[in-house]
Amino acid sequence: MSRRTAGAGERDEGGLMSVAAVGLALLGSLFFALGAALQQSETGPDRVALRHLARRPRWLLGGLAVGAGTALHVLALRYGPLTLVQPLGAASLLFALPCAAALRRHRPRPRELAAAAAVAPPSDKQTSQNKTQNN
Length: 135
Fold this sequence. Notes:
Helix content: over 70%
Number of strands: 0
Order of helices and strands: HHHHHHH
Shape: flat
Radius of gyration: 19 Å
Number of domains: 1
Number of helices: 7
Structural class: mainly alpha
Distance between the termini: 46 Å
């Protein structure tokens, strides 16, 4: 079965597919972050054997969340190219901060907020300023 390509009159469908890809990729990133935060909350500062972790429901739930995030990213690739979907995986770094803070029941530390700001994408204003400076 061959995939047909979109014609000139179907540009809107391509736009909707890109929106779907972005939404699915961001949702997948949220699940990645939630899974990582859940698993981190179970490990603590001490080393724990995998066989002990595998008996902890919260750690297992974290693994399921990571699996769901993976499935959502694969599904996003059905609707958008890798160059659109893959960079959105970095959003999981931003989502992990509030997830972990909620699990620890405290606000993010200033150091953590600074790290989140360092990986956040630039604003439209910053992007346009950079384009102006480069021209």
